[in-house]
Amino acid sequence: MDPITQKFIRQLRSITLSDEERASLRAALIDKMSGSSEAQPIPSPWTQFFYARSVQVAFLSFVIVVGYGSAVTLAAENALPGDPLYPVKTRITEPIARLVTPKTLTAQAGFETGLLNERLKEAEALDSEKKLDAPLQQTVREGIRVQSVKAKTVVRDVVEEDSHTDVPDLTEPARGIGTSSVETAIREDQSTAVRSDQEREHEAERALKGVLEKHKRILEKLDLENGKGNEKGKDND
Amino acid sequence: MKDEPLEKDLLAAYDAHADAIFRYCYYKTSERELAQDLTQEVFLKAWSYMQSRQPILNMRAFLYKLSDNLVIDWYRKRKSQSLDALLEQGFEHADTSVRVEEKAEIELALAKLKTLGSDDQKLIVWRFIEDYTPGEIARMLGATENAISVRIHRALKRLRALLQQHT
After folding, report:
1. What value does the mean pLDDT take over residues A77-93?
2. Architecture of B116-167 per CATH?
3. Does B106 reach chain A within 8 Å, measured CB to CB?
């Protein structure tokens, strides 16, 4: 290597820490090492919170209650009258479902009719399993009767509400309206609208009748008169 | 709890490589105090790494890698001040033990080094100042030893030409 380059390299090599600097950095390093070894980790406030016994107990209780509640609710879905979980189904699950059902009469009618269908299915299931003894029959009959009244009431409300809807009388031509082709077309459209409305009126009724027809056999067996909400011979209407 | 073997290992590494790391940081930053701070930071980072019980195969290469990262971080923080601007402004040696003439010569040498390309600077410093072998440099840069030897030769040629210009 030529002298100039050698000198250059030598100059750059001469850059070093002074003894004081080296010692000072070394001491600082030792200080930091011992500090980091002895320092205890600072627990975060969240860690402290979750490690508190009371919080742990509360959290565990919450998990148990929610978990147990969910499991019970799920198990109660298929419960039949006489099962220990049946009251969970009828007194907790179904009232909650009723609460969250939209408040329109049509939706309520659909819900109550569905529930009546459920009561009748339960009765059929018990009957097929030969479990429908006298005391249980009484319970089942009462359940169907109550639900039948609810479904019928709300279906009747739907029908009544629809019949009171302000529908213009389109059966006669309005005053001043002639019989031009345009007017005829308008009247035809309006007539179609009225027919559609009337069909909707009977939809809830048809659904209820369908359910009762479907479970006719069990209704007869339980001496319930086609789900009218009355046992034969009684007149509660 | 104290980990004496690890502490001993780190202090041994410090005694062996502190000057080289300081010099490397100084070349890169041209600020003596900053180079000291970065040197300390390099060894503290190495300490943290050692505490995680991860193996370090080549301590010297590992320390240079940490130095590179820290210097890059420093450059990012000081985007506004380029190295060239710092060189133009000049820099102060905190070490009063260095004679004024020596200081001027070192500054001049550093300024010349900076005029080389980044790769050439690295190769010159590692080969001729830090005494790395071409094989070690090859491993650090992921190249063949032969290729590194050729690149060192070319870098040295460019340095000579540069030094000739200034004399």
Report:
1. 85
2. Orthogonal Bundle (1.10)
3. yes
Supply φ then ψ for residue B140, to 5 degrees: -70, -35
Task: Name the class of domain B1-96.
Answer: mainly alpha
Residue range(s) of every CATH 1.10.1740 domain in chain B:
1-96
Residue numbers of A between 27 and 86 with CB closer than 8 Å to B = 28-30, 32-34, 36-38
List the structure tokens of B86: 């710092």
Task: List the one residue out of B128, B121, B126, B153 whose CA is nearest residue B137.
Answer: B126
B34 to chain A, closest Cα gap in Å: 12
Residues of chain B with pLDDT under 50: 91-97
Domain spans of chain A, in order of start: 54-100, 103-237
Inter-chain touch B26–A15, beta carbons under 8 Å: yes
Q: What is the pLDDT of residues A33-46, one digit of tens each?
A: 877 655 555 556 66
- Determine the Cα–Cα distance for residues B143 and A126; give it in Å rounded to an integer: 83
B167 touches chain A (CB under 8 A): yes
Task: Kindly report whether the global pTM for this prediction surpasses the value 0.80.
Answer: no
Question: Which B residues 27-66 touch A at CB under 8 Å?
Answer: 27, 36, 39-40, 43-44, 47-48, 51
SS (H, E, C) A65-100: HHHHHHHHHHHHCCCCCCCCCHHHHHHHHHHHHHHH
User: Contact at 8 Å (CB) between A187 and A173?
Assistant: yes
**How sure is the predictor about A182, in pLDDT bands with cuts at 50, 70 and 90?**
low
Give CATH 1.10.10.10 domain extents, chain B.
116-167
Tell me whether residues B40 and A29 touch, CB distance under 8 A. yes
Q: CB-based contacts of A199: which residues, under 8 Å, 6+ apart?
A: none
Task: Determine whether the interchain pair A17/B19 forms a contact, defined as Cβ–Cβ distance below 8 Å.
Answer: yes
pLDDT tens for residues A122-158?
A: 888 888 888 888 888 888 888 898 888 988 898 888 8
* ipTM of predicted complex: 0.70
Q: Which residue has the higher pLDDT, A149 or A61?
A: A149
Amino acid in the structure at residue A211: V
Type of residue numbered B146: N
SS3 A131: coil
Do B129 and A9 make contact, defined as CB atoms within 8 angstroms? yes
Min Cα distance B106 → chain A (Å) is: 6
Q: Is A5 on the interface with B (CB under 8 A)?
A: yes
Q: Which amino acid is at A116?
A: L
